[in-house]
Amino acid sequence: MANQKNTPLERIVTRAPEGLLLAGITGLGYFSAYLSDVGYKSYFQIPSMYAEIHLTSVVLAVCVLIFTLSIAYLCISIPEFRQYGPLLFSVLIPLALAMIIGMKVRYSLSREHFGWLVFLFLIHSVLLYLFFYLVQKQKQQTNWIAVTVLAGLLISVSYSSGTLIAKNQEYFLVSQGPSPLLIIDTYQDSMVVAPYNPKTKTITPKYRFVHLESDLNEKLSFSLKRTGPLNIKK
Length: 234
Description:
Keywords: Membrane, Transmembrane, Transmembrane helix. Helices cover 61% and strands 14% of the residues. It has helices at residues 8-15, 18-43, 55-77, 79-104, 111-135, 140-168, 215-219; strands at 171-175, 181-187, 190-197, 202-203, 208-211, 222-226, 231-232. Strand 3 (190-197) and strand 4 form a beta hairpin. It is elongated. The model has no long low-confidence stretch (mean pLDDT 82).
């Protein structure tokens, strides 16, 4: 009789092996880190085939997923959380994500993209509240809708976070000389560099992969410079 009072989400959590749950969350963390890097590289017009998964991004994504799922479980298990939990944490979680993204860009956000950030914050808060609201229901159909909403949130937050970082990042490594090169990112053991115009703060999307042990890398000298949000030459 006790199992009949539990929601499908509660039954999955209580019956599924711990190893399976851990593997699922870790897999979602890798997927989230991959989408974030795809979003970052897509802004610079770098094909997604060069996206990489970084360990720090995986750890961060896993921590956010565990925290979100824990709050969801508390919202359906503890009566005190059912009334105020969804509303409170649907604001706090996007706010925490915004602070993490802000740390990566040194809390420097261009006015051009401020409105877009506010829109993303509001839409993700609404979707997160919808997720917490749906998991409280006792119907299997609403729980599957909640899982769909969570999957959409995972994809949207991961991709948009990478794009926002790329749009607002101000500090890059730039080579010395009359024709400077700027390091956009790394891929395996190579640096992804592009021609950089310091006067217009524009890069030309003609990328080169410079291996860390190549002769060209030994001839280049890079220093950290504040380039401002980069523009992409059309």
